[in-house]
């Protein structure tokens, strides 16, 4: 089984997404659902990191969550590095990995 390493950038993005949806919805219900889906995705990536779709970037893969979000990650030896938690509705030109 692979280890998972979250970059500071990915953690900040996740935090910002959670804060936004908590404020936007006035509740934590959606944020909790999203967090649960991300935890499940990470569990799958630990078991089989190759399940994500290859991107145009060298060694970077994407795994979709709840249609509107993606985890961008790389694989190094026995470690999955979570590079970004991305809202797919954002301008893709802003994705800076």
Give the helix/strand class. alpha+beta
CATH topology: YaeB-like fold
Q: How large, in whole angstroms, is the Cα Rg?
A: 13 Å
| Strand runs, count | 5
Largest sheet: spatial strand order: 1-5-4-3-2
Oligomerization state: single chain
Mean pLDDT: 93
Percent range for β-strand residues: 25-35%
Question: Segments where pLDDT lies below 50 for 5+ residues?
Answer: none
Looking at CATH, the homologous superfamily is RelE-like
What's the number of structural domains?
1
Report helical residue fraction: 25-40%
Q: Encode the helix/strand succession as letters.
A: EHHEEEE
Shape: globular
User: How can the largest sheet be summarized?
Assistant: 5 strands, mixed
> For this structure, what is the CATH class?
Alpha Beta
**What's the N-to-C terminus distance?**
25 Å
What is the count of helical runs? 2
- The CATH level-2 architecture is identified as 2-Layer Sandwich
């Amino acid at each position: 089984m692979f280890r998972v390493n979250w970059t500071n950038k990915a953690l900040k993005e996740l935090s910002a997404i959670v804060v936004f949806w908590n404020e936007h919805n006035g509740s934590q219900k959606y944020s909790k659902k999203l967090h649960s889906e991300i935890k499940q995705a990470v569990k799958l990536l630990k078991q089989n990191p190759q399940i994500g779709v290859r991107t145009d970037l060298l060694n970077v893969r994407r795994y979709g969550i709840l249609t509107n979000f993606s985890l961008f990650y790389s694989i190094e030896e026995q470690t999955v590095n979570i590079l970004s938690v991305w809202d797919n509705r954002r301008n893709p030109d802003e994705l800076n990995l």
